[in-house]
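[[Sequence with tokens]]
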Amino acid sequence: MIIEREAKIDELIGKTIYQIDVNINDLTFFCTTGEVYQLYHEQECCEDVCVEDIIGDVVDLLDSPIITAREDTSEENPKDCSKENQDNSFTWTFYNFATAKGHVTVRFYGESNGYYSEEVEFAKMIKQE
């Protein structure tokens, strides 16, 4: 059984990632220390949160210690976005990562009727025996 513990994104600083699994709704980071972290959103009714795009090459985050891991949010559309928001509420969440090899920004887009969460969660996955 795997459980999760809420974590802070800066827990990745100093860790070396050897594998990243990227899906439309989540990213999973596998560290050389054996730790596994996940960026995700638990979907509910009347909202949707997904990875809108990734700027940079995630390969640059592998096999080199993470030196930057930061979260930023915005309720304004980025300049390069063509989305015309028809929803009551939306949130952009940006995750910025860097190693000596390069920088990557993961951009999540969340939309809802304003009642449901549009937040992205970051958790440490723990295998329980």
